[in-house]
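User: Thanks for the earlier help. One more: MaoC family dehydratase. Can you show the sequence and predicted structure together?

Assistant: Of course, both are below.
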Amino acid sequence: MTRPVAVGDELPALKRTPGFAEWNRFAAVNCEFVPIHMDDEEGRRAGYPRAIGMGRLQWSYVHTMLRGWIGDTGRIVALSLEFRRPSLRDEPLAVRGRVLAVRGDGERQEVDLEVWVEDAGGAVLAPGSATVELH
């Protein structure tokens, strides 16, 4: 039997403050050494205060939050994000989620979620949705 999940439940937030070391590792694994992500001057040339974070790094943080919540027996069925604002190096991020709908029985449930990445001021950088399966 799966754990009780109800509409309105909030997922535990995943908090990160990614700096150059995290960006460099992520860029190395994903072949994403794009100057705007690695060089503050390139970020300023593009109109930002410094280098901007990779959207796919925000994606990976949402994935990490979901995997932590669903555990080893659950699975991510669908995930979508809309990148609206970039993150900046060394600025705190929080990944959050909220249950929108629950379907199924005690053996298996599908859960629809609202998910998002926000900055330290609470501005949403990447809103999205997910569906997970709990066993």
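User: Great, one quick takeaway?

Assistant: The chain has a mean pLDDT of 93.
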